[in-house]
Specification:
heterodimer, A: about 260 residues, alpha/beta, Rossmann fold, 6-stranded mixed β-sheet, 4-stranded antiparallel β-sheet, 10 helices, B: about 290 residues, mainly alpha, ABC transporter involved in vitamin B12 uptake, BtuC, two-stranded antiparallel ribbon
């Protein structure tokens, strides 16, 4: 690690997870939820959905995240908060394997290989990334159904599946625009498509990066209503938010990231 | 009816350019590499079938099957050995080196091997559908030309159905549109890169086998076809297979008309001059801007 990285790492104030009284009812709902139609994850290891230990992410010589450790219980909603540029998104990128990391990540007890986003998707952790990462020349409908690619190769199976049904019903206001090319949708509509695509992947853990960035207040509210609905159905949520106020209306657990690297 | 016959001949050649252009465009979307060796696979298809059938005496069907298998296995090996090291490894090649270098080298390599194996004379695979060309009024269509068109329509149609109606096809489009977004939903873009490359090589070989009775091939014929397919793909901005298809047909017809009315000898030269002028006149309208900006 560079000098700069070391110094910043020393100042790094990533606090541990603090569970502020998680909802027992939610956890019960999560337990009741089927292990998954895919059967790819054989069993839940205890009640831990996600376990992150000593996670570090560096871009070249610059350390963005240093020694992050926290766990998220199955069925919980966890907010990762902190000022801009403190490494919140990098934590999520490191967990999902979008960037290479040091440290270990376990999803329902299974150790995740480093740098393998597809493994994560197949094992139930789906990312709704920052800037949405849609397929701009495909229709909104195509974007959503591609979420099903994590667990099926058959378009007929995908179309008639419960996860796809839930995803399409999630935002009724999106229905008139489903045939529209995704690149021409408004920012809010694109965010809805991104979340719907994540839900179509039938995730056990849905990780959402800055879901309200650049959205009007009313749209942001709708996004949070939808996330609350997904959570109420038993899906574990991880939300990265710069402004903790809104996230904490939904999340009972908070991981605060401070004094990270502004790179 | 000279005009009609020229247009028919142009559409036949154009359909090959169009198919190759679509192959180049689709693979570029997925891999960010331009396939400059696509025509060389066509040349190998024609000359290898000729060699196995005429020189080594294999039955025609066995010669064709063996050739296609050899091409497929070679393309597959090239991907898992060269491209995997070059593109997926830690010292990942990027930019213009990645876009041109590896397939350019492959093109030379194939030409060299073909010269050693098949010599430098003009050869052609035996005609699959024998007989005089089919005449309607004053229009004449070579039987091989009909086979070429049939192959183009069949392959194009199957590809369209795959893209339109299967999740795998949509995933292929998604990997072309946004590689990061594709990985998020578990799409293996590397696997698409591999199988489209192998598929392209086999399709090119099929066209070489079917078309060679019309023109005849030498070990150097591949580069010209590659260049024209590549140009057609360029007119589609390398990322729009639909435009590439139209451009391929257009270039084929233009080539035939120039050959017929201007000069058989200098027709191709004039054609390249016209194509270059078109690029200078409407770089944006022809999609070059999107090719440059990626």
């Amino acid at each position: 690690m560079s000098k700069l990285g070391r110094r910043r790492a020393a100042a790094d104030g990533l606090s541990g997870a603090t569970d502020e009284g998680g909802s027992a009812a939610r956890e019960e709902a999560a337990r009741k939820r089927a292990v998954g139609e895919r059967g790819l994850v054989s069993s839940h290891a205890g009640d831990t959905a996600l376990k992150v230990a000593n996670l570090s992410v560096a871009y070249g010589n610059v350390t963005a995240v240093h020694d992050a450790s926290f766990t998220v219980a199955d069925g919980a909603a966890c907010a990762i908060t902190g000022p801009n540029g403190n490494g919140k998104s990098s934590i999520l990128m490191g967990i999902t394997g979008m960037v290479r990391r040091k440290g270990t990540v376990e999803v329902f007890g299974a150790a995740a290989p480093n740098g393998d986003v597809r493994w994560m998707a197949r094992h139930g952790l789906t990312l709704v990334p920052e800037r949405r990462q849609l397929y701009p020349d495909l229709s909104a409908w195509d974007n959503v159904i591609l979420g099903c690619y994590t667990w099926t190769r058959s378009i007929a199976t995908a179309r008639n599946s419960a996860p796809f049904g839930r995803a399409i019903e999630l935002f009724p206001e999106l229905k008139p625009h489903l045939r529209q090319v995704a690149g021409t949708l408004s920012g809010g509509q694109q965010q809805m498509v991104a979340i719907a695509r994540g839900l179509a992947a039938n995730p056990k853990i849905l990780a959402v990066d800055e879901p309200c960035l650049g959205l009007a207040e009313a749209v942001a509210q709708r996004v949070y209503e939808a996330l609350a609905g997904i959570h109420a159905d038993g899906t574990t949520l991880i939300i990265v938010e710069e402004a903790p106020k809104r996230a904490l209306t939904l999340c009972s657990q908070r991981v605060e990231v401070r004094n990270g690297v502004t790179a | 009816m000279k005009l009609g016959n020229l247009i028919i001949a142009g559409v036949v050649t154009g359909s090959i350019y169009a198919t190759f252009a679509v192959c180049v465009a689709v693979w570029y979307r997925v891999s960010n590499i331009l396939n400059l060796a696509v025509g060389d696979f066509a040349m190998v298809g024609a000359l290898c079938v000729d060699n196995l059938y005429r020189v080594r005496g294999l039955p025609l069907w066995a010669a064709i099957v063996t050739t296609l298998l050899v091409v497929a296995v070679f393309a597959w090996l090239y991907d898992i050995i060269v491209l995997r090291l070059a593109v997926d490894g830690r010292g990942r090649a990027e930019g213009i080196v990645l876009t041109f270098f590896f397939t350019f080298a492959l093109s030379f390599f194939i030409d060299g091997v073909a010269k050693m194996a098949f010599g430098s004379d003009v050869h052609a695979a035996p005609a699959l559908w024998n007989g005089a060309s089919i005449a309607m009024a004053d229009l004449h269509v070579a039987r091989a030309g009909i086979l070429v068109l049939a192959c183009a329509v069949l392959i194009g149609g199957l590809f369209w159905v795959y893209i339109r109606f299967t999740l795998g096809g949509k995933a292929l489009e998604a990997s072309g549109e946004n590689a990061l977004g594709a990985r998020i939903v578990g799409i293996d873009t590397r696997r698409y890169r591999r199988w489209i490359f192998v598929g392209t090589a086999v399709i090119a070989a099929v066209f070489g086998i079917v078309e060679s009775p019309i023109t005849g091939y030498t070990y150097l014929s591949g580069a010209t076809i590659s260049l024209t397919g590549f140009l057609a793909a360029a007119y589609g901005g390398f990322r729009k297979p639909g435009r590439a298809l139209l451009a391929g047909l257009f270039i084929g017809v233009l080539e035939a008309l120039l050959g017929g009315y201007v000069s058989a000898e200098y027709g191709t030269t004039v054609m390249y001059a016209i194509l270059a002028a078109l690029v200078l006149a409407w770089p944006r309208g022809l999609g070059f801007e999107s090719a440059v900006s990626g």
